[in-house]
């Protein structure tokens, strides 16, 4: 697949004379060139501001000289007066549809029919892709089947005079005013006017890029207007507007794929050459196309596109094969409403409707509670889907999904299936609204939803089976209980084999049990038991961090340990008492209170203590002698003689000081080591006291608050 379209015309020199007519002509050509670069080639040529300036200049000239205004002027893309209805248009040549194929066999039969219809040699063997020898194989143009709306664009003398929808194939609706607002569609064809065909009907698809669709939907939601289910519906809805000014605001695009009436120019010999010709005339033509031979070539193209489908920036629902030589197309002709020379090879549908039989909740590894729709089985995106995520409670309300509803389900690529929208007309009288449970379906713990958060969570962090692996890994990590050797693989087995349920169970593990695990030798089992053993002696802040309370990171755990000094003090604290802790706000306080209100969690904490996990307790900070360094701000700079920067910081913080990154008037001390740089200069300039490591250690010795870490 290659990009077939390149080389925009170079900028024409600005006219020498200053006649408004000449200037307007030049501006129009410039703006068209930039439009083409931007919307057709996807390669912007000027900054927006420059484009806007040219645009305004042209608007001003046209306002001052209305006689100079042309319907093809780029200024006319903003949309004209609203219509009361669309006129009906009879197509000069009917707009046909395509026969569909789904299986490889359909493709083999299509190829066989084409080859036989063209009088090629008899098939070598039935049911294989190599029916014909290379020389006899039919040549095909392969392209994408865009998921949008078919459109016929009529150019006369190179000017867009009419745009019509397919309608019933014989007559469609005149949507010229709307289509004029689509910037990818040229209002004038490119090239030498004398060489342009007298009449050219280009057929193709109006569609919307996914990124544009997302932006449009976000904008619609923001304005509390209706959002669209998918890019196709958005494109259709935008084209059917009677007010072209609305269409002008919708980011529609276009790809050309076929020819209608042609007068005053010779038809190219092949479909692929025709698309190249269209591209040269300034029409957007998709670069994802290829010329192949025989059924195997078709199937290869189908597979290659199938693999990239999810990554394409627009929706497609299949690929289209067309016999490449137009003379051969003519010989093959049509059956009823579809050509014999073309086939749409469809991909499995990515959207289907089905019924929501129930809405249940699932608990994730981090305790996140996700509502999941249980669906009547439906084949979508190539697999049978029975569940679709509803993400969170707000999403269920926003999409208004009830149990019993018929919904549109989407599964694109490997993405988890999701409910796109409810088909409200099909809501049964006994449909039931979803009620968020208050208890975790896995462990029965309370479900919390902290203020300002969208996700509800199970509070049984230490005992919930759904969260076990995560909780154990968190508990064992270096910065928590520091149990070396208790990694992913071991935790996985310990939990899956039902050996460990809570962190307290770790302290019951013996070498024999561990050595029986996969990929665990006696030596590593012995080491792990030793590491577990060693972890019994810890610090209160490590222990608090290890519990995995939501929003309690290392820093908060330290604050809590320093503030309460003893675990019992922390466990007895209510939200009000927690709010007194340095840097603990309402969300954190609520999260800690919820965790400790869960009897199962308390039980595990007790089991851990009973298993011998211990630390040095200290006096609560409030009642301890006030730390002399509390409220003092330090800045560290340069290399200290004995302490690493992190160690120095930790010691200062443990003594209640704050360690800042830059020097200001509020800095109390700058601790300077070797090769101190600009911070030292600044301290001197501001008159902030500068001390060395020894002086800092002396201050710390005075502080004597007991290092928690
Ligand atoms: S060719 C004579 N090529 O598919 C053949 N159609 O059922 C006329 N479509 O409504 C159609 N991508 O809108 C052709 N590359 C493509 C297409 C394509 C999408 C749509 C078209 C039409 C339907 C045909």
Give an account of the 3D structure:
The protein has 709 residues and is α+β, with helices and mostly antiparallel strands. Helix content is 34%, strand content 19%. It has 24 helices and 26 strands. Strands 14, 15, 16, 18, 19, 21 and 22 form a seven-stranded antiparallel β-sheet that branches. Strands 2-13-10-3-9 form a five-stranded mixed β-sheet. A hairpin with a 2-residue loop joins strand 11 and strand 12 (338-339). Helix 1 (20-40) packs antiparallel against helix 2 (48-64), helix 3 (104-117) runs antiparallel to helix 9 (294-308) and helix 12 (468-476) crosses helix 13. The longest helix has 21 residues, at 20-40. It is elongated. The two termini are 61 Å apart. The model is unreliable at 1-8 and 705-709 (pLDDT under 50). 2-(butylsulfanyl)adenosine (IVH) is lined by residues 96-98, 143, 145-146, 150, 166, 205, 257-258, 320, 339, 342, 344. The site of 2-(butylsulfanyl)adenosine has 15 residues, from strand 3, strand 8 and strand 13. It holds the Pfam family DNA_ligase_ZBD. NAD(+) binds at residues 48-52, 97-98, 143, 166, 205, 322, 346. Residues 1-21 are annotated as: Disordered. Belongs to the NAD-dependent DNA ligase family. LigA subfamily.
């Amino acid at each position: 697949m290659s990009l077939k379209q390149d080389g925009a015309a170079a900028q024409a020199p600005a006219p020498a004379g200053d006649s408004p007519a000449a200037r307007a002509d030049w501006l129009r050509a410039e703006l068209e060139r930039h439009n083409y670069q931007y919307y057709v080639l996807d390669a912007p040529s000027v900054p927006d501001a420059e484009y806007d300036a040219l645009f305004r200049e042209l608007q001003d000239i046209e306002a001052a000289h209305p006689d100079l205004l042309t319907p093809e002027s780029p200024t006319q893309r903003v949309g004209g007066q609203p219509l009361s209805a669309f006129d009906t248009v009879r197509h000069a040549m009917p707009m046909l549809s395509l026969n569909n194929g789904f299986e490889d066999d359909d493709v083999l039969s299509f190829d066989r029919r084409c080859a036989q219809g063209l009088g090629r040699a008899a098939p070598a063997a039935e049911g294989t892709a190599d029916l014909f020898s290379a020389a006899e194989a039919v040549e095909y143009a392969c392209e994408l089947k865009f998921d949008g709306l078919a459109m016929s664009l009529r150019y006369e003398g190179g000017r867009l005079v009419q745009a019509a929808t397919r309608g019933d194939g014989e007559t469609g609706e005149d949507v010229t005013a709307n289509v004029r607002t689509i910037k990818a569609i040229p209002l004038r064809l490119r090239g030498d006017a004398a060489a342009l065909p007298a009449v050219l009907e280009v057929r193709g698809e109006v569609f919307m890029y996914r990124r544009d669709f997302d932006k449009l939907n976000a904008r619609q939601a923001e304005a509390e207007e209706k959002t669209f289910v998918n890019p196709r519906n958005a494109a259709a809805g935008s084209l059917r507007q009677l007010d072209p000014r609305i269409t002008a605001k919708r980011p529609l695009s276009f790809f050309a794929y076929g020819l209608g009436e042609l007068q005053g120019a010779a038809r190219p010999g092949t479909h692929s050459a025709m698309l190249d010709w269209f591209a040269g005339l300034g029409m957007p033509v998709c670069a994802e196309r290829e010329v192949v031979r025989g059924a195997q070539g078709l199937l290869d193209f189908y597979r290659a596109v199938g693999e990239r489908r999810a990554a394409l920036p627009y929706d497609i629902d299949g690929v289209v094969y067309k016999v490449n030589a137009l003379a051969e197309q003519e010989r093959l002709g049509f059956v009823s409403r579809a050509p014999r020379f073309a086939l749409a090879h469809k991909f499995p549908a990515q959207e289907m409707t089905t019924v929501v039989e129930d809405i249940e909740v699932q608990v994730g590894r981090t305790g996140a509670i996700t509502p999941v729709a249980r669906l009547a089985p439906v084949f979508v995106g190539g697999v049978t889907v029975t569940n679709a995520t509803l993400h969170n409670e707000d999403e269920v309300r926003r999409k208004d999904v009830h149990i019993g509803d018929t919904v549109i389900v989407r599964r694109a690529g490997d993405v988890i299936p999701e409910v796109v929208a409810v088909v409200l007309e099909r809501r049964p009288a006994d449909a039931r609204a979803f009620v968020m449970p208050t208890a975790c379906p896995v462990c029965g713990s309370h479900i919390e939803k902290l203020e300002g958060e969208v996700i509800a969570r199970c509070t049984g962090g230490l005992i919930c089976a759904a969260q076990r692996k995560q909780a154990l890994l968190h508990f064992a990590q270096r910065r928590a209980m520091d149990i070396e050797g208790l990694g992913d693989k071991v935790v996985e087995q310990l939990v899956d084999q039902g050996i460990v349920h809570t962190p307290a169970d770790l302290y019951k593990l013996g070498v024999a049990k561990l050595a029986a695990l996969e990929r665990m030798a006696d030596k590593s089992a012995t080491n792990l038991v030793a590491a577990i053993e060693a972890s019994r002696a810890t610090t209160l802040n490590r222990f608090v961090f290890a519990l995995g309370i939501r929003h309690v990171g290392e820093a908060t755990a330290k604050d809590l340990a320093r503030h309460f000094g003893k675990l019992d003090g922390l466990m007895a604290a209510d939200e009000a008492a927690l709010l007194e802790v340095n840097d603990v706000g309402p969300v954190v306080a609520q999260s800690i209170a919820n965790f400790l209100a869960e009897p199962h969690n308390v039980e595990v904490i007790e089991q851990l203590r009973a298993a011998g996990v211990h630390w040095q307790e200290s006096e609560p900070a409030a009642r301890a002698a006030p730390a002399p360094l509390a409220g003092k701000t330090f800045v560290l700079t340069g290399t200290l003689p004995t302490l690493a920067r992190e160690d120095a910081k930790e010691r200062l913080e443990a003594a209640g000081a704050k360690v800042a990154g830059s020097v200001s008037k509020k800095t109390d001390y700058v601790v300077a080591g070797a090769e101190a740089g600009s911070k030292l200069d600044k301290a001197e300039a501001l008159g902030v006291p500068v001390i060395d490591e020894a002086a800092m250690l002396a201050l710390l010795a005075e502080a004597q608050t007991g290092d928690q870490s």
